[in-house]
Amino acid sequence: MAPTFLLVGLPGLEAAPSWWTIPLITVYLLSALGNGTILCIIALEPTLHRPMYFFLFLLSVSDVGLATVLMPTLLGLAFADVHAVPASACLLQMFFVHVFSVMESSVLLAMAFDRAMAICRPLHYPALLTNGVISKIGMAIVFRCLSLHLPLPFLLAHMPYCRPPVLTHSYCLHPDMARLACPEAWGAVYSLVVVLSAMALDPLLIFFSYGLIGRVLQGVGSTEDRWKAGQTCAAHLSAVLLFYTPMILLALIDRFKLPLPQPAHTLLSYVHFLLPPLINPILYSVKMKEIREKILKRVLPTKVGCSQ
Known about the structure:
G protein-coupled receptor activity; about 300 residues; receptor; G-protein coupled receptor; 2 strands; Rhopdopsin 7-helix transmembrane proteins; mainly alpha; Olfact_rcpt; sensory transduction; single chain
């Protein structure tokens, strides 16, 4: 087992690691504030205790969790130019990064399923998505995240490493660590299983759900009804594109060995992990009228947070 792993910073900023801490910390604080506000509003407002907002609650949990688990190594590089990370810390970060990533993907799929049921089967929707069903979906999401990634730290911890322990990102990721192990074939197979069972299957099912929604909306007679239904889905579809587009681009670049400069590759990975937690609260606050009204009701009159 490698005693330490070496992380890379943002290429081009090695000589001046201090100034880019400002946007990094700003992005994180705004992400925590936005997602924390969503969590507070949904928890404290009884009228929002419905399936759609339960899934939005889980999405905010995964967003703030993902942003938080990336911060230790990012801030270590930014503040102190610390590249060496103990294997135990690297494995722990890798585990939570992938757990929260799969959790976000699973929640986005559940939200697409919820919207499809609400629009395609409106009369049966309350009977189908009961509190008991929603609880089971939430437990299934947790079980899926843990079952896919719980073996990873133990497998990687007991693998011999015959390559220099230099990772290509500013945080620890499973494919990055698995390629250093010898032999690496098992790592490639396990990565393929995880990708196909989550990150490849989920977007296909999501866009299939939206295909069903689009077909139903074509048959809606009123333009106003189509507009309302479209607005309901707009925030979620934007979140889906925001999460999956950088991930798919990174996968294509790695798979086909496209000649992308390393700074662009690293920046794209930052976008994939850090932009959704920052943008999702804004999307849902703007696009979802109930969330927006509850936030304004609690924040503007008293100038205090959601504890009032």
